[in-house]
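We now fix the convention by which a protein and its fold are recorded. The integers have meaning only within a learned vocabulary of local backbone shapes. The record below shows the convention in full.
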Amino acid sequence: MKALAFALLCGLAGAALAQPAPPSPAAAAILARMKAIPMATAVESPDAYTPAETVAGAVARPLPKGGGVTAAAIANAQAYADGQNSFALIIARNGRIVHEHYAPGFTASSRFATASMHKAVLALAFGPAIASGKISLADPLSRHLPELADDPKGAVTIEQLLRMTGGVGSPPANPADPQSPSAQLMFGEDNRAAARGFILTTPPGSEFAYQNISTQLAGLALQAVLGERYAAYLSRALWAPIGASDAALWLDRPGGNPHFFCCLQATAGDWLRVGELVRNQGKAGRRQVIAADWVRAVTAPSPLNPSFGMNFWRGSPHVPVRRYGKAVPLTVAAAQPFARDDVVYIDGAGGQRVYVVPSAGLTVVRIGKPSLTWDDSELVNRVLAGLTN
């Protein structure tokens, strides 16, 4: 069951399961797309996610090198990363890179498909749009997606979606069936239309349940108010200002909708820049890219789950076994409490992570082979044990 749950969180369940005979040409196209993304190498195969749209970056200055963590702690952290088949590990202290390592076959320019890590970027991207008055956390979906005017989902608010409390889920179906809403959402050629196939499974605002559809609906609502492509907006509002290089978004079809819940393909170094943006309360260098109060809002504890904010996870209070929702059997361990109580992190399925510890001036990025034995506290605590000042 854990393997199935992991595949569902990745959005790649169909690629891992035996498929029924396709009942239609549309289903055949979905099955072909499932097979085009190899589950075993999904993270290191970003070019398999096609069609894609560029998120333009900037010609960035490399982050400076520095110290602040003992060599023993770095070696201990790298040993854990290696034991978990990691492709990239970067540790930065007070804005300076103290350790950057890539497994054979990968470099600083390698892009990765880090699954749900896009969710946190989407949450940050809401900040400028909210500040401009284009959209509000209190807005119901139907205000921006008129096709939901007569749908119970239309009353779900943007805030509920970002907090994973909207109550939207999949009707009973085999997720490997190409006709199911989950398969259509991930692999179909119109994920906005696919979103209409999801239903309210619990009353909005009553229960935490981590769902890809929640982020997709929030992203579609944001896209509707922008007046430009989401890729162009993301580049202008966040990606280029933090000094990131070009990234890519996976689209449902050429010129179509992004997958907002996943599939922002970027380098490990650029994920470090996202983490540094959070650590510095929305600043990149001297520039206030995202308002500090918005960064605090998305990383603050939610009423229904203090371990979650708005598409960001939190290390405190300590949860030894973290769940994504009662309907998802997959769990992630944090065997020991985090050594600092202000850890926030970006989660991608199978241990894709950006950890931020503001009180320690620390940002850690790990990207690698998906792992069902990943322990969230282990890597961070090994680094925190070696702070030198």
Notes: The chain is about 30% helix and 15% strand. The CA atoms of residues 241 and 289 lie 7 Å apart. Residues 117-131 form the longest helix (15 residues).
